[in-house]
Structures are given as C-alpha cells and as structure tokens.
Specification:
With 314 residues, the chain is mainly alpha-helical. It folds into two domains: 44 residues, no CATH class; 248 residues, MetI-like fold (Orthogonal Bundle), CATH 1.10.3720.10. The protein is built from 14 helices and two strands. The protein has a two-stranded antiparallel ribbon. Helix 9 crosses helix 10. The protein starts with a helix and ends with a helix.
Length: 314
Amino acid sequence: MAQTLRRRKKSSRTYKWLPFWLIAPTIVVLLIVQVYPALYTVWLSAHEREPQGWVAVGFDNFRRIFGTSLFRESVGHTVVFLIGYVVITLILGYVVAQILSRKLLLSGFYLTLLFIPWILADILAGIVFRLLVIPDYGVLSGILGDPNLFPPRGLSILTASRPSPWIGEFPFPPSPAMIYLILAAAWRGLPFITLLLLAALQTIPSEVTESARIDGADGWKITRHITVPLILPTMVVALFSLMLGGMNGVGMVFSLTGGGPGTTTHVLSYHLYTLGWTRLRFGQAAALALMIAVVNWLLIAGTMRLTRVDERTA
C-alpha cells in the first residue's frame, strides 16, 4: 500500500512538472537569443571600449549622443521618412487591395507580380533603385537630367542638396534623395500591406455594402462608415508593421543613399550603424539602440491609444 502511494505521488509530481519540461527548450532559446542580448546591450550602454579595456562611463554615452548635431538631424530625418513611408504605403496598399478585391481577370497573376518586391532583400532593392538614377548610365538619368523637365540643369537625385527648411532646422521639405528613398521603401513594403488589407476586405460580407448602396450611400460613405471600421484592427497591424520596419530598417538606406548626399538621408537606424560599425563606438551604439527601442514602444502605445482598438473591437 505504501509503495502504491509513493508511486502515485511520484507520478503526480512528474505530471505537475511535465508542461515546464516541454517548454524548457523554448525558454532556453529565448534566453539565448533575446534576453541575454537585451541585458548585454543595457550593460554595454554604460561602458565604452578604451585601450585599457572596457571602462564604465555611466550615462556619458547618452549625453554624448544627445550633444551631437548629427543625432538631432537624424531625428528630423527619421520623422520625415516615417510619415512619408507610412502614409504612402498604407494608402497605396488600401487602393491596390480594393482593386484586387473586385476579382479582376488574371488577379492571381497580378498578385504574383505584386509580391516580387517582397522577395527581394532590402539591400538588393536599394541597389536596384540606385542603378536607376545613377548619372550618365541610369535608366532614368536621361529623364532626370533633362533641363526642360527639371530646370535649370536637370536633377541628380543622389547629389542634389536639400531645399532650405521651412520651420527652423527641421528637414522639411526633404531632399530629392529622401523622397526617392521613401518611394523605394514604399515599393518594397507595399506587397505585405496589400495582402493584409486584401484579406481583411474579403471578410466583409457583400450584403452589407450592397445594402448601403441601396440606401443611397456613395463610395466615400461606404469606405468611411463601413469598410474602414470593419478592417480597422488589420489596418492597425499594418500600421505597426510599417512604423517598426521604417524605424529599424537600415538596408535600404545603406545601399541606396548611404545616408547622403551629405547627411540628408541620415536616419536614426543608419546613425546606429555608423556608430557601431564605422566608428566602432559600441557603447554609444548600444545607448542609441536602447533609445530606439523606447521609441518603438512609444510608437506602439501611442498608436494603440489613438486608434482605441480595444474599444472598437470589444
């Protein structure tokens, strides 16, 4: 009898700990690839590499970053890039999704063509767009270099300077290179956003829109009062994806403009890259990475509050 009770207790303990042992490998992987790098970044942000080794500098790395004019300029460029990239990609994605939702002839073929940009790496897409506008032999160089279209001497996107700012030192209007970078990034991100919105549009019952048309609602009212509210959760997901991708992506900037001409496309993600891998200031790069992480969280929290997804979808 005593042996039977011991066996039951042992079996009960084994059953109790079984879920933990099943997820233990996943926990170990997360600790290695996420928790440890995050903690190491925090430690690295308070240290700097000197000839004698790692030296604790406290918050000096943050003060050094904030004290540079290039950082402040990068913040302005990042704001301009994010606004242009998010607005253009979201609007174009919605328009293309609406067109494809009408079940056009060869719509499957159009979807296949649409996803070509998505399978390209950021760096490769940047190289392709750079080759289009390189002076003398770029595909678009003949059009851009025409002084009749772009007086007085044509337009060189990769070397044109930024116009005089309208508001203080804020970099607006952007340089031709920044506009071109925004368009290239929108082209790269359009397929995924279109797919998200197309899937959401296909879940809207056709009877709802037909009833609205019978009641006299035009296309704008249907879009405003029916379509957008019903696909709002998906639009928020698309917005998150665009904001986080635009905030953290560096491949397109690296291969297309290299932060130039001058510093007119020097965004925060590229500033992080140059600090860590060009100037080898790893402590300052870690500090900047923490600041970008905080900005990412603020963007997510702000978007959730503005859209109030939890109230609209409850």
